Amino acid sequence: MTKVGELVEICRRCVPRSRNHDIHPATRTFQALRIAVNDELGGLTRTLQSAPEWIAPGGRVAVISFHSLEDRIVKNAFREDHRWEILTKKPLRPTDEEVQANPRSRSAKLRVAKRVE
């Protein structure tokens, strides 16, 4: 395999279609590669661990996640660190109108926490 198109074709043949058929079979494969190569989950974890050091008491941090692994990291970071007060018990999701206007927002989840002393 030497070209992106070859990987796309392999994914098309091997990866089952999503339930709603809106997502190309290669999408998740490329997403997984991007997340791994860029250490996106590690970067998110490190940022959330250090955030209380640079957010003043009373300050807020808002994180939008687009992937379940990201959301789990954010949720657990806010829950496990006593320096955060969670302001969004459940993540905020886009409305149907927002998704209609911006389809990429469909998987977005917003979580907000306040820095406590």
UniProtKB/TrEMBL annotation:
One Gene Ontology term, aspect cellular component: cytoplasm
Superkingdom, taxonomy of origin: Bacteria
Protein's UniProt keywords contain Nuclease: no
Record flagged with keyword rRNA processing: yes
Coiled coil: none
GO BP annotations listed: rRNA base methylation
Bias-annotated ranges (Basic residues): 106-117
Span list, region Disordered: 95-117
GO terms assigned for molecular function: rRNA (cytosine-N4-)-methyltransferase activity
UniProt keyword annotations, A-Z: Methyltransferase, rRNA processing, S-adenosyl-L-methionine, Transferase
InterPro entries cross-referenced by the UniProt entry: RsmH, SAM-dep_MeTrfase_MraW_recog, SAM-dependent_MTases_sf
One Pfam assignment: Methyltransf_5
Protein family: Belongs to the methyltransferase superfamily. RsmH family.
Official protein name in the record: S-adenosyl-methyltransferase MraW
Species of origin: Rhodopirellula europaea SH398
